[in-house]
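Q: What residues go here?
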């Protein structure tokens, strides 16, 4: 009896789904099923002979041409002591259309310090055959055996063209 009810439920659900029928130039008909867009995210876990690791990346928001993606990871070696991860880090990536993008991230390895970085890029001019970009970046190492390093900063203007 429960199988009959289950099959009946599926038949009702399938028949209630709105379908659009499209026809091509040759008269072939196709059912157009509406698809919903979902946020894309992915979580991975790895176990190998050296240790375990987990990572996650996904879209935080995507609205009005603004997109923010994030990622994070943590790794633990089998030979190390304690429960804290041996390496961990994360990154945020922002983009606004095809003109502007930025990132910020940090990576920490226990006993060796933390690397921090950020950058931005903006498309100043774009045409069919020529592009000009400008950008800047920053990076610095904190802690570890070598101590805190000096900040590393830079900027660029880059042009490319098709001749």
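A:
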């Amino acid at each position: 009896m429960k199988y009959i009810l289950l099959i009946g439920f599926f038949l009702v659900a399938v028949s209630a789904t709105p379908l659009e029928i499209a026809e091509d130039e040759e008269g072939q008909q196709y059912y157009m099923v509406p698809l919903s867009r979902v946020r894309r995210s992915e979580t991975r876990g790895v176990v190998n002979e050296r240790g375990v690791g987990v990572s996650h990346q996904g879209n935080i928001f995507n609205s009005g041409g603004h997109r923010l993606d994030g990622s994070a990871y943590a790794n633990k070696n089998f030979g190390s002591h304690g429960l804290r991860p041996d390496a961990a880090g994360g990154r945020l990536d922002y983009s606004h259309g095809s003109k502007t993008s930025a990132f910020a991230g940090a990576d920490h390895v226990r006993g060796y310090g933390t690397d921090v970085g950020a950058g931005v890029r903006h498309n100043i001019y774009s045409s069919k055959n020529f592009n000009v970009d400008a950008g800047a970046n920053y990076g610095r190492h904190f802690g570890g055996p070598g101590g805190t390093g000096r900040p590393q900063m830079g900027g660029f203007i880059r042009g490319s063209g098709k001749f």
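A: Context that may help when evaluating the design: Strands lie at 20-23, 29-32, 41-47, 51-63, 66-77, 87-96, 100-109, 113-126, 130-142, 152-161. The first helix runs from residue 2 to 16.
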